[in-house]
Amino acid sequence: WTPDFAGKRMEDWLNNMGNWAISRKRFYGLPLPIYHCDECNETTVVGSREELKEKANELINELKKVYDPEIPVNIWDLGLVYDISINNDDVVIEMTFTSPTCPMMEEILNEVKSNVETVTDGKPVNVKLVWDPAWDLSRMSDAARIELDLTDQGW
């Protein structure tokens, strides 16, 4: 049914209307920080930026507990961790080593995984070893440079 006064303007209006036809308030998609685990049926909602920072700091603090036995600096300050992705299903950590021939590689990878699993609310942790880009001294934090006495090199 179309009103007589509308003529062809209202004809088939639902099929031909633009975004603005019903309301000028447009919400195309609002990303909500809701994470749901299908395995355990648990849902986590991050309520604020502060809470998100707190969760990230918990994870980073666990990474700072992992040391290479040959170097007295933790892997976070050494710059060995390239990326951390917190997904609905798991936590993925991309990291590297100072050398591909590191004899403690397996032990360090296992320690990273077990430490981070303590703060992921039951999500599995996958540690991906990457070699590109190659690690270099520029990735180290200032604290690591001071600890290793590399400040005289102008870093």
Per-chain topology:
Blueprint: H1 13-16, E1 34-37, E2 42-45, H2 49-63, H3 75-78, E3 81-86, E4 91-95, H4 105-117, E5 125-129, H5 142-147
Parallel strand pairs: 4-5
Antiparallel strand pairs: 1-2, 3-4
Give a summary of the structure in a few sentences:
The protein has 5 helices and 5 strands, in the order αββααββαβα.
Largest sheet: 3 strands, mixed
Spell out the helices and strands N to C: HEEHHEEHEH
Strand content: 15-25%
- Based on secondary structure, the structural category is alpha+beta
Low-confidence stretches: none
Helix percent band:
25-40%
Based on CA atoms alone, the radius of gyration comes out at 25 Å
Quick one: overall form? elongated
Provide the descriptors you would attach to this structure in a database record:
155 residues, alpha+beta, three-stranded mixed beta sheet, elongated
